[in-house]
Amino acid sequence: MAERIVIVGAGQAGGELAAGLRKQGYKGHILLLGDEAHPPYQRPPLSKGFLLGKVALSDLYLKPLETYARFDIEFKPGTRVEAIDRSSREVSPRDGSRLAYDKLVLATGGRARPLSLPGLEGTRLENLFSIRSLSDVEAMRGGFIPGNHLVIIGGGYVGLEVAAVAVQSGLRVTLLEAAPRLLSRVTGPEVSSFIERIHRERGVEFRLSCEVRGLELDEARRQVRGVSLACHGVPERLEADLVLVGIGLIPNTELASAAGLAVQNGIVVDEYACTADPDILAIGDCANQPSAYTGGRIRLESVPNAIEHARVAAATLMGKREPSAAIPWFWSDQYGLKLQMVGLSTGYEQCVTRGSVEHKEFSAFYLKDRRVIAADVIGRPAEFMAAKRLVSSRAEVDATRLGDVAVPLNSIAA
Ligand code: FAD
């Protein structure tokens, strides 16, 4: 068994792995290196309760700082690893030191995709934000002043969650989305229009099928003053006090590719979280893994995936072989309404809704070949476990019974 495991990236996956190794009885040295100032923390509240001021900083931490010492985990915050030397099995942090490993785990997550507009390259704008880290939220919070106009570029989950928090904080919000509907890559039109409705009810304005053409800057080129856009080709200018860019994530794979490891939309790993180098593993948002659910390869960006992938890696490092059979799932919170998603709806043939869209309590089931391949469960958390079972069992279902709330969901697959 490895004597010294080095984990690069002290986020959700890295933190779970370090603790998981100790829980599984690993007795060797664990070194957890993170480039942020904090111990591993949960990112979901960054665009929800933490931004709203309802979740304290210490409640974000996966474990209190002192737990790492208690678990005999050497944790080094503020330590950015710049290179891997595979021949000597060492990593080099920015300070020039060299740290030896027997097994190395890359848990480097990703970074927010920047807005790419001509003329903006290299410009740092004080009121243009993205949210990936605690420091991003701390920087943006100053602009959360009632009456300020927030323009959000990107209608994915992060953009929508920030929109919800912002209107609840008294800001005016306009959200710009390039596609004709919200969340178009992950949900069906029924759920997209529902999400749009709950936001419009609270006063969020939308521009769909919208192309962002440019940002208007102040004379000093330090602040955004307005956003130029075109919806269906019709030009418009919106004044902006602050702008949030929520257009996706770029996986942090540079360390791996510089070390000669395969990278293809993430660091390529097998079902045991191993790269082609038997001493290097990769987990979480940065890793592209085989999926028992899709039968192909997948890179997921979710807490359940980070936790499951850390479990798989801990087993591998303990000399066991425990591939993941987990189904992708995710949750979001907007205006206190819980949205839970399981499976991937891409390629569905029929959407069956169950419950009341009107009363904001319904599930949307996505069917292909009469089987449920994915489900969005909204305001019906009690139904989520059964929905997960339907997706994982791949049993044939009767669409009429599925849509009938009088028929218990548990009995449908039977
Ligand atoms: P991360 O948590 O990003 O951790 C990676 C860490 O590695 C970071 O600290 C990074 O700074 C560090 N790092 C990178 N490179 C280096 C280096 N060279 N040296 C040292 N350290 C390095 N998921 C859900 O399931 N539900 C949600 O509701 C949800 N909401 C979210 C809201 C927001 C605003 C964000 C940003 C994410 C949300 N997610 C949500 C996604 C979820 O948080 C991620 O999938 C999860 O954090 C992935 O864990 P990870 O460890 O792979 O990456």
Task: Give an overview of the whole structure.
With 414 residues, the chain is an alpha/beta fold. The protein has 3 domains: 4-111 and 250-318, FAD/NAD(P)-binding domain (3-Layer(bba) Sandwich); 128-245, FAD/NAD(P)-binding domain; 336-411, Enolase-like, domain 1. The protein is 22% helix and 30% strand. The chain contains 11 helices and 26 strands. The chain has helices at residues 12-23, 49-52, 57-60, 65-70, 134-141, 157-168, 189-201, 254-258, 303-317, 384-393, 399-402; strands at 4-8, 29-33, 73-76, 81-85, 90-93, 99-100, 103-106, 110-112, 128-129, 149-153, 172-176, 205-207, 210-217, 224-231, 234-239, 242-245, 249-251, 267-268, 280-282, 287-290, 297-298, 329-334, 337-343, 350-356, 361-368, 371-378. The strands form 7 sheets. Strands 3-2-1-7-19 form a 5-stranded parallel β-sheet. The protein has a 5-stranded parallel β-sheet with strand order 9-16-10-11-12, covered by helices on one side. Strands 22-23-26-25-24 form a 5-stranded antiparallel β-sheet. Helix 1 runs parallel beside helix 9. It starts with a strand and ends in a 12-residue tail after the last helix. Flavin-adenine dinucleotide binds next to helix 1, helix 9 and strand 22.
